[in-house]
Amino acid sequence: MKRLIISLTSIAIFSLFFVSCYYDNEEALYPSYSNTCDTTNVTFSGTIAPILNNSCYSCHSNNTAAANGNNIRLENYADVQTRIVSIIGSIKHTGSYSPMPKNGGQIKACAISQFDIWIRNGTLNN
């Protein structure tokens, strides 16, 4: 009986040892959910405009701004450049700025970082 208990205990410990060693990470298991944030080449046309398109145009496009976006249009560089201070305050949910997107959480931290870099680099129309 004692020998059976020792054998079962040894098998259980041996099994736990192999089951507990699991090295896969999220990036390897789910490559489409990559957590990388490209901040090396932030441009208006390649980085900022797509963020606005995905997060803001449902209310702030030329077609929807009058009805849904308090007549604030963000579809072109001139519109964005003249409102950049309020845009960054709104997407960061800071101060007296209206948090955007309306009735939603903040946009991804990566997108906010990319806005910060674009601003730091002079809000170029590139």
Write a brief caption for the model.
The protein has 8 helices and no strands. The chain has helices spanning 2-20, 26-29, 44-55, 57-60, 65-68, 77-82, 84-91, 109-120.
Q: How do the strands and helices of this protein lay out in sequence?
A:
Elements lengths: L1 H19 L5 H4 L14 H12 L1 H4 L4 H4 L8 H6 L1 H8 L17 H12 L6
Helix and strand pattern: HHHHHHHH
- List low-pLDDT spans: none
Largest sheet: none
Please count the helical segments.
Answer: 8
Rg on CA atoms, Å: 25 Å
Instruction: Give the helix level as a range of percent.
Output: 40-55%
Q: Count structural domains.
A: 2
Strand content: under 5%
Shape: elongated
Alpha carbon gap, first and last residue: 79 Å
Task: Work out the number of β strands.
Answer: 0
Mean pLDDT: 85
Structural class based on helices, strands and sheet pairing:
mainly alpha
Written description of the protein model:
The chain is mostly helical. The protein has two domains: 2-31; 39-120, no CATH class. Helix content is 55%, strand content 0%. The protein has eight helices and no strands. It has helices spanning 2-20, 26-29, 44-55, 57-60, 65-68, 77-82, 84-91, 109-120. It is elongated. The mean pLDDT is 85.
Which descriptors apply to this entry?
0% strand, 126 residues, 8 helices, mainly alpha, 2 domains
